[in-house]
Amino acid sequence: MTVPALASRTFGTPRHTTHYLESGPADGPLMIFLHGWPGIGLIWHAQMDAFAAEGWHCVAPDLRGYGGSSAPAANDAYTMEAIVADMTELHDHLGGKPAVWVGHDWGAAVVGALAAHHPRRSRGVVLTSLAYFPEAFALPTLVPLVDRTLYPADTYPDGQWDYYRCYTTNFASAVADLDADPSASLASVYRSGNPAAMGKVSPSAMVTRSGGRYGAAHRAPAMAPDPALWPAADFDALVQAFKAHGFGPVSAWYTNGDANIAHARRAPDQGRLSQPVLYINGDWDAICSIAGNRQGDPMRAACPDLTETGLPAGHWLPLERKAEHVAAIRSWLRAKKL
Questions:
Q1: Which pTM was predicted?
Q2: Per-residue pLDDT tens for 156-215?
Q3: Which residues contact 313 (CB under 8 A, 6 or more apart)?
Q4: Is residue 249 within a helix (H) or strand (E), and if so which, with residue range?
Q5: The domain 7-335: what is its CATH number?
Q6: What are the boundaries of each domain within the chain?
Q7: Which of 70, 21, 74, 23 is nearest to 43 (CA)?
Q8: Which of 27, 79, 249, 281 has its CA 20 to 30 A from that of 55?
Q9: How far apart are alpha carbons 310 and 251 in whole angstroms?
């Protein structure tokens, strides 16, 4: 099987410039992959190789604030409304035919919002490691769904989402800690899942009381990247991307909850997704797993054609289980005749 090369492209409008990777036949059915925090389009390398070889036209942009795309200075430039607009412009540039949209983490939130507001642009939705929240991926939506048997409200008011809260309360400090050593920060963030962590309080719930993600050190410990996740050359490209812009723009995504909720409430049909939706859960994802808790309930209520599956992985499922992730998507595409 010949694996098509990834081509680097840039598309710009007066309001935004998007860098994206592209592979596969230009006349093939369109599949668009959206990364999350803290990634770049290259996180989808394995998936693009697999689906491009099967005839799909694969595109993976760097989202606003990331990689080679525009990174405005103002935090309020990173609303879901603005990011969805970036993607609709890119989609038009790519021909505008209904696509299969694949998202991970914050990229899943973008895919969900785009599918809700622009249903004709999507013929299928794949969400990985973050459920769809029709009222937006924002603290007022998330906190009521916290498992209070694991996170008692008096001790952990925001549950596993305390790290999210810190971006809204201690933004400059949170960013400075990550920027202190981008390579170490990225190596510390991207670790394989551990089944022993399930059912225990996540470190993400203790960021505030620790004084930051890295505590008193205010910088990530020196460590080698997890070799099971990023290929070495891809990790180097990831590090260089974050040395260019830093963690400020990408972390600003967490500071626009009110605007994102308002945007979500403007979606037609209360944000229900009529398209076929596949949700791929990381069974060892201590923050975002929807197994054994209520976190997936809003998605189940809003997606009448929902397929759920899980893989033995942590949050970085598309990297941890590359072949299995591709196989799950492929099986669903065939079942739904997409």
A1: 0.98
A2: 999 999 999 999 999 999 999 999 999 999 999 999 999 999 999 999 999 999 999 999
A3: 192, 193, 282, 283, 284, 285, 320, 321
A4: helix 248-251
A5: 3.40.50.1820
A6: 7-335
A7: 21
A8: 281
A9: 28
